[in-house]
Design brief:
mainly beta; globular; 6-stranded mixed sheet; 691 residues; 5-stranded mixed sheet
Length: 691
Amino acid sequence: MDRRQVLKGAAASAVGAAGVPLGTATPPPCTTPPAHDFPKVGGNYGNQNFSALTRINRGSLRRLGGAWVNRIEGGLTTGTNQSTAIAVDGVLYIESALGNVHAVDGATGVTKWTYHQTRGTVTRRGVAVGQGRVYTHGKDNWVIALDQQTGAVVWEKQITGYGNMEKVAVTYHDGLLHIGTHDGDRGAALAVNAADGELVWHFWGAPGPGELGNDTWEGDSYLTGGATPWIHPALDPELGLVYWTFGNARGNRSSQDGSQRGGANLFSSSIVAMDIRTGQYRWHFQSIHHGIWDMDNVMAPVLADVRIHGRMRKVVVYGSKSGMYFILDRTDGSAPLGIDERPVPQDARQKTWPTQPFPRQGGWTEQRVVDQPLGTSVPGDPNRAVPNYVPGALYDPHWDVPVLSIPGHGGGACWNHQSFSHSTGLVYTGFGYVAAAHSLTESSNGLRPPGEYQTGGVVAVDVSTNRVKWKRRMPYSLAHGNGILTTAANLAFIGQPDGNLLCLDAENGRELWRFQCGAAISSSPLMYEVAGEQYLAVYAGGTGIPYGDSAPRGDFLWSFKLGGAVPAAATPPPPVVRRPVSGGPVEGSTVGNKVVLARTYNATTGQVGTVESTAVNGMAPTHLRVPVGTTVTFVNPVDNVNEHSATQFFEGLFDFRLQPGQSATYTFTHRGEYFFNDSHSPRPTGKIEVY
C-alpha cells in the first residue's frame, strides 16, 4: 500500500456512531490556546501545551515561588506516578500512584474531594472533564465517571475485548470519550458515550479480515500484532477528525521479531485520521514499516497552523522515538515539506521492509552510535557505544547478535508531552540518549546495556521548515513523562527526574529559573488563573522509567505564583544515571575478591553457577564492593568452552582476554564505579564499586 495514498470513506474496522447525543457547548478551535483554564491533558485539542498567560515572564520570573504544595496521598513515597494535572474553573484534578482522583482548589491547595479507587491500582496519565463529570480508569478495563463537584461515582462501565485499557489519558469532546488501549496483543482506539459509558465505535490498530490494512499482515499475525494506541489523540473539531497514533508491531516472540509477520504491518507505527463521530478512516501515514525495533513513534500528536512556502497550512506534527518529525497536512496526510522513502539494510529472516520514510530535512537527534575509544574523555559523547557490541544505525536489522543503535526504544522522545509555541512557531520536546541493543535473544523490546549513561536534552524545531532552531543537552533523559509547557511570554517549563522544575528561555534554551519539588517529575506543567492571579502547577511523583527505583518518588502537587513564599522541598537523592547491572551488591570479602566470568551468581546461597552463561547477569557476582587498594581477580573457569574477557569501560583500565582456566588481576586505587563486560558476548556486565 502506497503510504502517500489518501483513502477516504468508511473502514470496516470502524463502527458507526448513530444516535449519540451531541454536546451542548461549542468548543474553541483546536489550535486556540487556553487562557484561564488548562482543561485537558495537552491544554487544548491540538495538544499544544501552550498557555496564553503572560504575567509570569522574564521580568517577573525572579519573584516566582511556591504558592502551595499538597501531599495528595499524605506523604506517599512509592509507586508509579505518570498522571498530568488539568485545571477547570479554578480546580486541579490529578490521579495518584494509587489510582485515586483528587480535586484540589487551585488558589489555596486545599483538597475539595478524593475518589478512592475501588477497581485496583493502574498506571494513569490524566483525567478528562466534561458534562459535569470527571472521567478516569480502573483496573480490568473499567471507565469511571465521577461527579465533578463531589467525586461521587456517577457510572462505571467495563469494556473488554479491545486490549488493556490503562495508561492513556482520557479525552472528552462533544459527548464522547476518546480512550486508547496499551501493551497487548492487539489494541483499538475507542469512542465511548460520556453519558453512560456505552461503546460507540472502535478502530483496530491491527485490522482483521476484510478490513482496510489486513493484507499488510502475514496470515493471522494481526491477532498478536500489537499496534496499540497507548497515548491520547489530538482532535480537530472543525475538520471533524480525531488523530490517533498506534504503537509498534509485535511478533510471535517479541516486538523485535518480524519473521512471522511479513508485510508493512498497518497500522503499527502510524498516525491515523478518523471521523470524530463515527470512527471512519480518512487517511494514515506509517512512520516505520514492519518495525522490529520497538521504535513506535507513539506521541500525542501536536496540531498547528503555520505558514509553509508562503501558504497557511493546517498541520500535524508526528514522530517521537525515531528522533524525527514528520510534518503532515492534517486535512489529507500529505507532506508539504517532503518525505522520502530511502533504502535501508535488509535481513530476509526478519522479512524487513526495503525502505523507511525520512523527512527531507533530516532528524533532530543523532541516528548512529559513536565508537569512541576507551580511555578517552569520560563520559564522552552521549551516543558513545558500550564496548563489545556490534555498532549500528537506525533501522539496521538484527537476529541473534545484539546490534546497538540509537535513538533506542527509550528515546529520542517517548511518552513525554510536546509543546507548540504560538509566540516562536517552534515545537519543543524533551528527549533521551539511551542506546538499545536489539536481538531475538533479548527481552520483548531490547536491552539497554548496563553501564551506559542515560542522559538527554531538549530540542526546539521550527514547524514551518522542520529544521532545528536550538538543542540543549541535559543531565537526564527527558523522554518519559517530562512534558514541556511553553507560554506567550516565551518561557518553557520542564521537570526533571531529580525533582527540579526548570524554566528555559523558549528562544534559545538558556536556563532562567529552577525549583526543587521533592520527587521526580514525570508529568507536564500547566498554567491557569484564579480570581486574576496566575499560577504555574506541576505534579512531582516519579516513575521507574528509565532510572528504576533510583528515581525519587513522592506525591507533591505544587502550585507557584509571583510572590509565593512556600520554600522548596528537600533535595532528594538524584537518580543513578548509569544503567545498573543485574544484581545487588556483594562484599568482596565474602567471595575472595573474585569475579567469575560467564557464570551466574546466587546471592542467597553464595553459589556460582555451574553452566557457562551469556546472560546479562553472567558475571559472578555482577556487583562487587571492595575498599580502595583491593586487588580483584577475574577468572575464566577451566570448564568454560569459550574465551571470555573483562573489558573495563569507559576509563579503559583493563581488557583481560582469558582462555578457559586463565585468570588476571587488577588493583583498584581510586574510589568510584568501574563497569566491565565480555567480548565473547557483551550482555554479561559487571561492576566493581570501590569505596
